[in-house]
Design goal:
This protein is mainly α. The chain folds into 2 domains: 69 residues, no CATH class; 234 residues, no CATH class. It has 17 helices and 7 strands. A 3-stranded mixed sheet has the order 4-1-5. Strands 2-3 form a two-stranded antiparallel ribbon. A two-stranded parallel ribbon has the order 6-7. β2 and β3 form a beta hairpin. It is elongated, with a radius of gyration of 22 Å.
Length: 308
């Protein structure tokens, strides 16, 4: 048990009894700091923790130190990119909108409206069509250079990230709604089949993947690149309720079409790229052929950035 801290300046008092750090970042020991934070003051005041302090100015070297101190498991993978220029730019863009983008570990409590790099990386990967990485090897998103650059290209916008994040929140919201109806015993047959699909852990990334394949039908225009599906800056805010509601309406139109065209049992479908492609193709055909379904996308379309 111990902590590794990176700082740009450390000053030792004349009597060498006090060390002052000017700006710190905990690069290893988040569990330790979290335990200390959770302890009552009376218990924490007598605790001594072995701490390693590294003074460094070079940003590139900081990234290497973070990587060297976080190789234990995949949970720490995203923290290895905490000082990556793309992650820092994204954090700054969201900060200007009052949204907290968490791209490094911290013991501090974060608001429910925060966007965390690890789960959003997984969702972005699914939206772009890579279902297997999203559900089976998500650590590669931050550990594999090629995969990372595909999921977080230098051109990725906060508008695209927020669009995918609010889609993920809408999925959670809709699942809760269906479970509440199930508890009340008021579900229709179609709703029961939807909940059966959503109950599998891989289904979230599966649904996000399907929506990514339907991006043109949802947007109502040509979108060759998944990253071009993005919200207007004016709709990026800490209060995501309006955008989430627009996504819920879209999902309520898409899900019933999806479950009626499953090529296998739910457990197999949500884990198969082949089945995902088959469901996306059949659902796309139905959505494109029924103009009434597309009206469910109108609130979301008004929020999307124009590619021109």
């Amino acid at each position: 048990m111990g902590i590794t801290i990176v700082t740009k300046k450390a000053t030792l008092s004349k009597d060498k009894k006090k060390l002052t750090l000017h700006g710190i970042s905990v690069v290893n020991g988040a569990q330790t700091t979290g335990a200390i934070h959770a302890a009552e003051q009376t218990h924490a005041k007598d605790i001594f923790v072995l701490t390693r302090v590294i003074t460094v100015q070079d940003e590139k070297l900081i990234s290497e130190i973070v990587a060297g101190n976080n190789t234990q498991n995949s949970i720490m993978a995203w923290d290895r990119r905490s000082n990556n220029p793309v992650q820092m730019r994204i954090a700054n863009e969201f900060s200007s909108k009052g949204v907290d983008y968490v791209h490094r570990r911290s013991s501090a409590r974060k608001p429910k409206t925060s966007i965390f790099a690890d789960p959003i990386g997984q969702a972005l990967c699914a939206f772009s069509g890579d279902l297997q990485t999203a559900i089976r090897t998500k650590a590669d998103i931050f550990e594999n250079e090629t995969t990372y650059n595909k999921v977080f290209p230098v051109t990725i916008s906060a508008g695209h990230i927020y669009a995918v994040q609010t889609l993920a929140w809408a999925y959670d919201h809709l699942k809760v709604q269906l479970k509440e109806k199930s508890n009340l015993g008021s579900m229709t047959d179609i709703e029961e089949r939807q909940l059966k699909l959503l109950d599998y852990p891989a289904s979230k990334q599966f649904v996000i993947c399907i929506v990514g394949e339907l991006r043109e039908e949802i947007a109502g225009r040509k979108l060759l690149n998944p990253n071009s599906f993005e919200l207007k800056p004016t709709f990026i805010a800490a209060d995501s309720k309006k955008v989430v509601q627009a996504w819920v309406a879209a999902l309520q139109a898409i899900l019933p079409q999806m479950i009626q065209n499953l090529p296998a049992i739910e457990y197999q479908v949500v884990r198969s790229t082949e089945h995902m492609n088959a469901v996306a193709k059949s659902t796309k055909g139905i959505v494109a052929a029924v103009p009434l379904l597309q009206t469910s996308f109108d609130p979301l379309r008004l929020m999307l950035n124009s590619p021109w």
